[in-house]
Write a structure and sequence with these properties.
heterodimer, A: mainly alpha, MetI-like fold, 13 helices, about 0% strand, B: MetI-like fold, about 75% helix
Chain lengths: ~280, ~300
């Protein structure tokens, strides 16, 4: 295949720079704001660089909001539990849709995908009632139970596409050899599906981690259970906002997950390619 | 050997065919879970929409809520704004997602690093990304106004979120920012799934890059584009956190979409019944939109005989 000319390369790098500027701008801005002393933040005109920048905000955040560490932990913990709960429903259902033909398959699959239409925000009031009658308000479950439910349809859709790619012959021969159905699912299908499970698991985790705000502020009043996106608003006081610490805490809060992600992203792109998500 | 093969096939076919019950057993847990967490609340929303439920109890009032909504002077504007917001945002996500995927697919040094760098807006909690944008949009101290003032495009501070038009487009820019990475990654995955032989054959025949993009890449990844566009449209329609954190639907309702409006009515004003009616309208509009989308899609497929 042809190579890029020098000129084309330059153009591509310029385009990538523009694209990445858009993607990374808010993070850059957060980082710059976190370095400035609070009084300096409200200085106009805008200065890119000044000599009074420091990392002080990064040590002060732990005193301003003592539970910050807990919030960061809660976020990761909630996302993990949500993912496990969601996957335990997704795996059998996706396998069933990938392998079997049965009456009502298309309709039930359509209904599952239809759930995507209902955002949590639309169903808040009845969900509140439901969680209250189940005694789940103000617990971790108040956040991960509805959180998992809304992630199930996409999970089924993604994993189904992946499972369909696994050759059926292995299951056939295991069945001929007298293996039980559950044994086939557990010992034949799942090990082969590991790359697909990683992809769907990571995608679910991202969904669960990125959207923790609404259910947390509505169904949970206990501060010790708050995830980071809700807890971080403690830096927003009635009178004033401690902007530099708000930014510092945001950065500290997301770094652990970004690091985990550095290692997982390779599998995500590869896995999505192999699953060749269609329809 | 031959008869053996036949036996084997029939056993297997029996296994596949006679397993409707097993197939359903595997689905039931997920179905039951969603029925409780989504199905029941939906039914309850329908019931509430015919009541005047609030903090002080509830009473059946028939179609009153719907009539009130129908006669509301503001509501058509909100519906129109929601669709306009969705249309702009989804179109931009698809365009930027395609461009992004092409750039990340180009064989350049640093490609692996770029692929990592594109993901943060998707991974990071939306609420936290929005905090960053709040400061970017800050008229006095934010980088956007700062740079524009340095360049002389703005002659003074400009609060992006304080004026109707600029607030509306600012929320779109942020929503596109949140949505683009996922679209990019899915398109990138789809592009990598396209057989290299196609490109090489076209190259040998002297097809230009642009021609190959139009005639190979786009048709090959079309199924992914089409399904991502629908999913993205639904998510964008239902997008709550971004607008809520940036503007709470303001200034003067300029960024109030149907979902924000529903939330305000039900949660902030405690009008559960009237709020439920609005929630139902969100679901209704979205369902109709999706059905029309799928219908048109079916027609297009028939017309052009693509799969």
């Amino acid at each position: 295949m042809e190579k890029y000319t020098f000129f084309q390369k330059i153009l591509l790098y310029i385009a990538i720079t523009v694209f990445m500027t858009y993607i990374l701008l808010p993070f850059f801005e957060m980082f710059m704001a976190s370095l400035r002393p609070l009084e300096h933040l409200f200085r106009s005109p805008y200065q890119f660089w000044s000599d009074d920048m420091s990392l002080k905000a990064y040590s002060d955040i732990w005193d301003t909001v003592p539970l910050l560490g807990r919030y960061i932990f809660n976020s990761v913990f909630l996302a993990t539990v949500t993912t496990i709960l969601c996957m335990s429903f997704v795996i059998p259902a996706a396998y069933s849709y990938a392998r079997f033909n049965f009456r009502g398959k298309r309709i039930s699959l359509g209904l599952f995908l239809g759930v995507n239409m209902f955002a949590g925000a639309v169903l808040l009031i009845p969900l509140y009632k439901l969680l209250r009658s189940l005694g789940l308000l103000n617990t971790y479950a108040a956040m991960f139970v509805p959180g998992a439910a809304f992630l199930v349809p996409t999970g089924i859709w993604l994993l189904k596409a992946y499972l369909e790619k696994i050759p059926i012959e292995l299951e056939e021969s295991a069945y001929i050899d007298g293996a039980s159905r559950m044994y086939i699912l557990r010992k034949v299908v799942l090990p082969l599906a590991v790359p697909g499970l990683i992809v769907v698991g990571v995608a679910t985790f991202i969904g669960a981690y990125a959207q923790q705000f609404l259910f947390a502020i509505t169904f949970n009043q206990k501060r010790e259970y708050m995830p980071l996106p809700a807890g971080i608003f403690e830096f927003v006081g009635y009178q004033s906002v401690i902007w530099n610490e708000l930014m510092a805490a945001s950065i500290v809060g997301i770094v652990p997950v970004l690091i985990i992600f550095l290692f997982l992203q390779k599998y995500l792109v590869e896995g999505l390619t192999k699953g060749a998500i269609k329809e | 050997m031959n008869s053996n093969k036949a036996d084997y096939n029939t056993t297997w076919q029996k296994f596949v065919r006679s397993h409707a019950i097993y197939a359903w057993l595997l689905i039931v847990p997920a179905a039951l879970f969603l029925f409780i967490i989504v199905g029941w609340p939906l039914a309850e929303t329908v019931r509430l929409s015919f009541t005047n439920a609030g903090l002080g109890g509830e009473k059946y009032i028939g179609w009153d809520n719907f009539e009130k909504l129908y006669n509301s002077r503001k509501y058509p504007g909100i519906v129109g704004r929601t669709f306009y917001w969705m249309f702009l945002s989804v179109s931009l996500k698809m365009i930027l997602g395609t461009i992004g995927a092409l750039l990340l697919n180009a064989k350049l040094k640093g490609r692996a690093a770029f692929r990592v760098m594109v993901m943060p807006p998707w991974i990071v909690p939306m609420a936290i990304g929005c905090i960053g944008w709040l400061w970017v949009y800050n008229g006095h101290f934010g980088i956007l106004a700062g740079v524009l003032m340095h360049l002389g495009i703005l002659d003074g501070p400009f609060e992006f979120l304080a004026y109707k038009t600029s607030a509306f487009y600012s929320t779109i820019v942020t929503d596109v920012w949140v949505g683009t990475p996922m679209v990019t990654i899915f398109f990138l995955a789809a592009m990598q799934g396209v057989s290299q032989d196609l490109y090489e054959a076209a190259y040998v025949d002297g097809a230009s890059r642009w021609y190959r993009f139009r005639r190979i890449t786009i048709p090959q990844i079309m199924p992914v584009i089409v399904s991502m566009a629908l999913l993205s449209a639904i998510w964008t329609f239902n997008s709550f956190e971004i607008i809520w954190i940036l503007t709470e639907g303001g200034p003067r309702g300029a960024t109030t979409t149907m979902i924000i409006d529903t939330y305000k009515m039900a949660i902030a004003n405690y009008k559960f019944g009237y709020g439920a009616t609005r929630a139902l309208m969100v679901v209704l509009f979205l369902t109709v939109f999706s059905l029309i989308y799928l219908f048109i899609l079916g027609k297009v497929h028939q017309r052009f005989k693509v799969k």
